[in-house]
C-alpha cells in the first residue's frame, strides 16, 4: 500500500484512498458508491483549493517594512550631504525620480492596510432570551447588492415574513435565510412597523434577527423552463409587484429561464444572456392573463359608459370576454387578422434547436409591410443560388400581366382565397415539393397565414421585411429610384403605419426584422440570416420537438 506522509497533499491522499477501494462481494454497492463520490473532479478541485488556502495561511506574504518612502527620503538626504562617487550619484538620481517615489508610496499604502475581511462584533444587547421561541442571528456581508429576498406582512399576526428567496442573491448564497422565517430586527431596529419594501434597499453589512420557520428547508429547485416573452414588462410601472426592486424588466422576444414556479403569482426567472446570476420576479402566465383581462374589462366599461350611461354587469362582461377567448382558441376557427389582437400574448415555452444534416431545412417565411417589395427580394435570392434555395410559388385568380410567367411569379388559377379584390394563396403541396429536393424553401405570405405555417411540420423561421424610413418622413434610404417612381410623403406615412400595424399584430411571431435600406444590402443580409438559421442553434417552440 502506498505510504502517505504528513507532507502529502490532501488531494493526493484522496487519490491514494480512491485507488485502494476494491469492492468485495459483500460491500460492492457501498464501496462503488464511495469510489464514485471520491473520484468526482469537483471534490479534487476543492481539495486543491483547500491546500492553497492553508499554504497561504502559513506562508502569507508580509511586507518587510511599511515606510519605504521615508527610508528612501532619509537615504537621499544623507547622499546629498557628502561627496559622491559615480554609483552614489546614480542612486541619488533614481531615488529622486517621480516614478520610483510613486511606486514606494503605493507600496506603503498597501503594506499599511489590512485586506482581510473584518466583521464587526455583535452588540451585547442583541441576544435576548425568548421563553419558547428559538431565535437566530444572521449576519450577511453583501457587495453593494440587494438582499435577494422579498417579505410580506401576515394579516392575522402582523408579523413580517420572508415571502421568497431570489435564486443567486445574497440570502440564497448564505443558506441561512428561508421562506417562512419571521424577521424581528434588521441592524438592531425592530421592523414591526417597518414597510416591507425597505428591506430590499438595505446595503452593505446587514444583521437579521430571525425566528426560524418550522421547516428550515428551501424547497426551491432550479428548473430548466425557458420562455419567450410575448409582451414587454417594466416592474417599476407595475403597482401589483410585491417588490419593484426585485422585478425583472424584459422586452418582447427576450428569452427567460424560469428557475422557480413555486409561487403561482410571481415566478423567479433570469434573462438568457444576462451576466447577472441572480433571479428576479416576473408575473406568472396566469396572473398576467388575469391582469390583461381585467384591463380589458375596465376599458370596456369606461367606453360603454361614455356612450351608454347605463348600469353594466361586470360579471356578464367577464363572461363575455371568456367566451370570446375560448371561441378564438378553437382549432381551425377561421377569423380575420384583427382577431389576433385580442389573444392573450403572455409567454411561449421554447427550447434550443440545432438542425441536423439529415433533416429537411427549416422553412423561411417572409412577411413584409407596405413598400418592402419582398417578391423582388426572394426572386434575387433564387436567381443567385437556385440549387440551394427554392420558391413556393403562390396562386392567384387575377389576370396575368405581360411581364409575368406562369409558375414563376404566380400560378394563375380559379378562385381560392381573396386579397384586395384578387384571390391569392400558397399551397402546402408547393412547399413540400421544394423541401423534398432538400432545398431551403422561401415563401412570402400574408401574416395571418402564419397560424397555419407555424407548426412542427415546417418549423418556419419568420423574417419581417420593412423599409427603413427617415424620421423626417421625407424620403427613403436609396430614395432616388423611389421618388422617381412617384412616391409621396403620404405614401411614406402609409408605409410607416403599415409597418407599425404589422409589428403590433404579428411581431410576436417574428424571429428576425430586416430593415431594408436598398436591394443590394437587403439581399446580402437576408442570405447571411438564412445560412445562420440552418447552421446555428435557434430558440423554437418546445411543442415542435415534442410532437
Automatic annotation (TrEMBL):
Pfam families: Guanylate_kin, L27, PDZ, SH3_1. The keyword ATP-binding does not apply. Keywords: SH3 domain. Residues 6-59, 61-118 form the L27 domain. Residues 137-214 form the PDZ domain. Residues 361-531 form the Guanylate kinase-like domain. It comes from the Eukaryota. CDD domains: PDZ_MPP3-MPP4-MPP7-like. Transmembrane segments: none annotated. SMART domains: GuKc, L27, PDZ, SH3. InterPro entries: GK/Ca_channel_bsu (IPR008145), Guanylate_kin-like_dom (IPR008144), Guanylate_kinase_CS (IPR020590), L27_C (IPR014775), L27_dom (IPR004172), L27_dom_sf (IPR036892), MAGUK (IPR050716), P-loop_NTPase (IPR027417). Residues 222-292 form the SH3 domain. Belongs to the MAGUK family. This is Membrane protein, palmitoylated 3b (MAGUK p55 subfamily member 3). It comes from Neogobius melanostomus (round goby). The lineage of its organism: Eukaryota, Metazoa, Chordata, Craniata, Vertebrata.
